């Protein structure tokens, strides 16, 4: 009865030893994969920093302005050439009914742009558009 018991204990010890070897092998494989992923993450971080630097260089205001002037022939408008547009909601807020008895859909703007200035700006815009 002692021989089969010793044989069973030997088999148990060998099986445990094989499981320990397998666990160590799996741990080494996982450590190698972890190291590779850390290197990849570091490479991606370096690339991200380079892309951010490149983006800030491309989007620099002075560079964009220079390209607009040189390649597109654009220029900064003079003070008299600037026109502003208002949203419909803002324009609706600046209107009032003609009188209390008129319907609400008939309104008159409270503030108007000077026609002469607007006409000059429109003419300049058309000349600039036709010159291209």
Please count the beta strands (DSSP E, at least 2 residues each).
2
Class of secondary structure makeup: mainly alpha
Q: What is the ordering of alpha helices and beta strands?
A: HHHEEH
Strand content: under 5%
Biggest sheet overview:
2 strands, antiparallel
Radius of gyration: 39 Å
Low-confidence stretches: 108-123
Query: What's the shape?
Result: rod-shaped
Q: Average pLDDT value?
A: 77
SS field, number of helical segments? 4
Termini, distance in Å? 107 Å
Helix residue percentage: 55-70%
The largest beta-sheet arranges its strands as: 1-2
Report what the structure shows.
There is one protein chain. The protein is mainly α and 132 residues long. The protein contains 4 helices and 2 strands. It is rod-shaped and about 110 Å long. The N and C termini lie far apart (107 Å). About 12% of the residues have low confidence.
Spell out the key features of this protein.
single chain; 132 residues; mainly alpha; two-stranded antiparallel ribbon; 4 helices; 2 strands; 67% helix
What's this entry about, in short?
The protein contains 4 helices and 2 strands.
Summarize the topology:
Elements: H1 2-58, H2 61-70, H3 88-93, E1 95-97, E2 107-109, H4 115-130
Antiparallel strand pairs: 1-2
């Amino acid at each position: 009865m002692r021989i089969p018991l010793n044989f069973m204990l030997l088999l148990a010890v060998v099986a445990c030893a094989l499981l320990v070897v397998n666990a160590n092998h799996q741990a080494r494989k996982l450590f190698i994969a972890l190291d590779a992923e850390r290197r990849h993450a570091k490479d991606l971080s370096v690339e991200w920093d380079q892309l951010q630097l490149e983006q800030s260089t491309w989007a620099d205001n002075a560079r964009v302005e220079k390209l607009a002037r040189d390649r597109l022939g654009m220029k900064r408008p003079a003070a008299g050439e600037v026109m502003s547009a208002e949203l419909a909601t803002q324009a609706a807020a600046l209107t009032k009914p003609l009188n209390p008895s008129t319907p609400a859909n008939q309104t008159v703007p409270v503030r108007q742009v000077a026609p002469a200035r607007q006409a000059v700006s429109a003419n300049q815009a058309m000349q600039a558009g036709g010159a291209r």
